[in-house]
């Protein structure tokens, strides 16, 4: 079961984020899945993860994904993955659109997925937003 869950989490990164196959999220996540991210209220359903993947892929049309580490125990899979690409596309923030600057962007994210009957029902994730914001020119590089 742990290997099947690991494979499903891998598909989430590689197919949904890496290739933009957003409908695959509906196969992997429960329709009532709950996503917990830092500084935000929990999101329910697959809409959030599809929106995130589309946002990243729209901002970086050459977006690539690499799964760096993955461990599973019981009903949980912990993954560390990297996303990278060139900021040449459309990126819309709550404050408005951000003009592309051609920057190379590379960030890591750690995520824990909880499974029930082969589907993700709850996730906790911590993305490296600081690195992304610096690359996009929203914060000064240190």
Topology of helices and strands:
Layout: H1 2-19, H2 24-28, E1 29-36, E2 43-44, H3 47-59, E3 64-73, E4 76-86, E5 91-93, E6 96-98, E7 104-116, E8 119-127, H4 129-135
Parallel strand pairs: 1-8
Antiparallel strand pairs: 1-2, 3-4, 4-7, 5-6, 7-8
Number of domains: 1
- Percentage of residues in helical conformation: 25-40%
The main pleated sheet reads as: 6 strands, mixed
Shape: globular
**SSE succession:** HHEEHEEEEEEH
| CATH architecture descriptor text | Roll
The fraction of residues assigned to DSSP E strands is 35-45%
**Strand order in the largest sheet:** 2-1-8-7-4-3
Looking at how many chains there are and whether they match, the oligomeric state comes to single chain
User: Please, how many helices?
Assistant: 4
Count of individual beta strands: 8
Distance between the termini: 43 Å
What is the C-level CATH assignment?
Alpha Beta
> Are there runs of 5+ residues with pLDDT below 50, and where?
none
Structural class, by secondary structure, is alpha+beta
Q: Kindly report the CATH topology.
A: Nuclear Transport Factor 2, Chain: A
Q: Give the averaged pLDDT, no decimals.
A: 93
Care to describe what's here?
This protein is an alpha+beta fold and 142 residues long. Helix content is 30%, strand content 42%. Strands 2-1-8-7-4-3 form a six-stranded mixed sheet. Strands 5-6 form a two-stranded antiparallel ribbon. The longest helix is centred in the N-terminal third of the chain and has 18 residues, at 2-19. The N and C termini lie far apart (43 Å). The mean pLDDT is 93.
């Amino acid at each position: 079961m742990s290997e099947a869950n690991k494979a499903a989490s891998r598909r989430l990164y590689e197919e949904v984020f890496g290739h933009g196959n957003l409908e695959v999220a509906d196969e992997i996540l429960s329709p009532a899945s709950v996503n917990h991210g830092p500084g935000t209220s929990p999101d329910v359903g697959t809409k959030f993860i599809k929106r995130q993947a589309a946002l990243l892929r729209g901002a970086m049309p050459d977006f690539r994904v690499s799964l760096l580490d993955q461990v599973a125990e019981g009903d949980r899979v912990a993954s560390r993955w990297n996303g990278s690409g060139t900021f040449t596309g459309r990126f819309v923030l709550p404050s408005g659109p951000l003009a592309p600057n051609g920057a190379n962007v590379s960030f890591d994210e750690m995520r824990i997925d909880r499974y029930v009957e082969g589907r993700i029902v709850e996730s906790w994730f911590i993305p490296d937003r600081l690195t992304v914001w610096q690359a996009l020119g929203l914060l000064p590089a240190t």
